[in-house]
Amino acid sequence: MCSEYLATGFANVDACDDASAYQQCLTLLDSLPYFMAYKERSYELLDLSAGLSVLEIGSGLGDDALRMAQRVGADGFVVGVDASFMMVNAAVARTPVDSRVGYVQADARDLPFADERFGRARVDRVLQHIAGPEQVIREMVRVLAPGGLLLAYDNDWGTFSVSGSDDETTTTIETLWASSFQNRWIGRYLKHYFLAAGLRQVMIEPSVCVVTNFALADRIYNLRQTVERAVAAGRLMPSVAHEWVLDAQALSQSGGFLCTLTAYTVVGVKPGGASAGAAQMNSR
Q1: Using an 8 Å Cβ cutoff, are 230 and 159 in contact?
Q2: Total domains in the fold of the chain
Q3: How far is it, in rounded angstroms, from Cα 15 to Cα 3?
Q4: Quick check: 280 and 151 in contact, CB under 8 A?
Q5: Which residues of the chain fall below pLDDT 70?
Q6: Quick check: is 1 in a domain?
Q7: How far are the Cα atoms of 47, 52, 150, 268, 269 from residue 273, in angstroms, in the given order?
Q8: Is 166 part of any domain?
Q9: Which of 41, 118, 187, 231 is most buried by a 10 A CB count?
Q10: pTM for the full model?
């Protein structure tokens, strides 16, 4: 089992003992139907078309940047920004030399780009890990051209739920995992941050990730490692923790296991210009 704790480690991958664990996590998530679906929806909401310039914050291994580059074509380009030197190197190594994609290592709260540089901007599951997410959004708005679209997708860990035979133990595990994130409720505040940054025609779409297999949920949400942390912190007795894992595995085998999380996709328009995608959005 991986020793890295995904809830906290993504905030500073370069300082982690095993950076490959984070690359493996991104690859796993990118392969799952739910993640494929919301990513495709995000490209649709961004109204990507030929010739557009796109900024991707938290570009990771570059998979989203490459898919968006296909949509903007030879006359467009995509720039991926990541705080991790190792992630940027991994993305560069995976990117064909003839792609209209480039990568920059930078702090998303202080982007090294001129004002109004990009026609579209996207940030996916990054703000949950960064102190000062409002500043990230303000910086993305600064480098976005008038009429451009900004999209953010992120989790609301206050909605995280997992099946368990004992309510108190289950609540302890859910709470410990959720509270490990820098911004555990970021999903519910995205619309507020967009409006505060001056974006207009802001819309929000919820989506729910449902996992019915304990082993997969463990890989995504570090369930057994969270149980171990609860024991180490004195919040669970070892025997109780062991029994909880056994019960969850039994539920999974019988088809009764459930692990869910609600996330939000938020899109807004920067005032001052016409956006092709704005007409497709319904203000809420």
Answers
A1: no
A2: 1
A3: 14
A4: no
A5: 1-3, 274-284
A6: no
A7: 15, 15, 14, 13, 9
A8: yes
A9: 187
A10: 0.93
